[in-house]
Write a structure and sequence with these properties.
The protein is of the alpha/beta class. It is built from 8 helices and 11 strands.
């Protein structure tokens, strides 16, 4: 294996599938099946999942809601998604722990770095919920932060497309795909892979990001085995 420990960033919006809101059991099963295969492959898996299928902090703020309140609601949405993913994984026999940046000890463990690393070493899937615990920071930034804290080998950003393009490939047939990019390229070109705070954090700590299509079966397994899939973002 090329990567022993990964941080998988999942989109909350992707969980809704063809619905406009909520959680699709079929999509949840797709995610959990691929994660189970990684665990069986011997990979240590940490996950950050968004909450956009329930509530997006920025979206609420643009409609007049207080930004801090809206972001706190978004954090709670990520906890709902994390618990749903945990349930799906454990029904498949995968041992899972949800660690949350907002303390709610009745339903999840508080985030403690050493505890998270120990869970990973024991072969448990660790789901980081509630972002960083602070408003004004996205789950992209949370993914970059947690990946660095647990010494992940790579961040895998799971999307609906097979990499990063210069424009939306769903709209523009002439969109050009990038096989590899530097962090500076991402920032200079304004490519919406992750927000600029997350990209800067990865750049400063030299951790690669791989963007791929999670709905194409086997893609994540191919990446951890060393195959070139999707788009890689790296320092040089």
């Amino acid at each position: 294996m090329k990567y022993k420990r990964i941080l998988l960033k999942l989109s909350g919006e992707a969980l809704s599938g063809n619905q406009t809101y909520g959680i699709s059991p079929e999509i949840l099963n797709t995610f959990s099946t691929q994660i189970e295969e990684l665990v069986n492959f011997g990979v240590e898996v940490a996950i950050v999942i968004g909450g956009g299928n329930i509530h997006r902090g920025v979206s609420g703020a643009t409609k007049g809601m207080d930004r801090t309140t809206s972001d706190h609601m978004g954090m709670l949405a990520t906890i709902i998604n994390s618990l749903a993913l945990q349930d799906s994984l454990e029904r498949s026999g995968v041992k899972t722990r949800v660690l949350t940046a907002i303390e709610m000890k009745e339903i999840a463990e508080p985030y403690i770095r050493r505890r998270a690393v120990r869970h990973l070493e024991k072969g448990r899937v660790v789901i980081f919920a509630a972002g960083t615990g602070n408003p004004y920071f996205t789950t992209d930034t949370a993914a970059a932060l947690r990946a660095n804290e647990i010494d992940a080998d790579v961040i895998i950003k799971a999307t609906k497309v097979d990499g990063v393009y210069d424009k939306d490939p769903m709209v523009h047939k002439d969109a050009k795909k990038f096989d590899e990019l530097s962090y500076i390229d991402v920032l200079n070109k304004g490519l919406k892979i992750m927000d600029s705070t997350a990209i800067s954090l990865c750049m400063d700590n030299d951790i690669d990001i791989i963007v791929l299509n999670v709905f194409e079966k086997g893609n994540i397994q191919k990446v951890v085995s060393g195959e070139k899939i999707g788009t890689r973002v790296r320092k040089n």
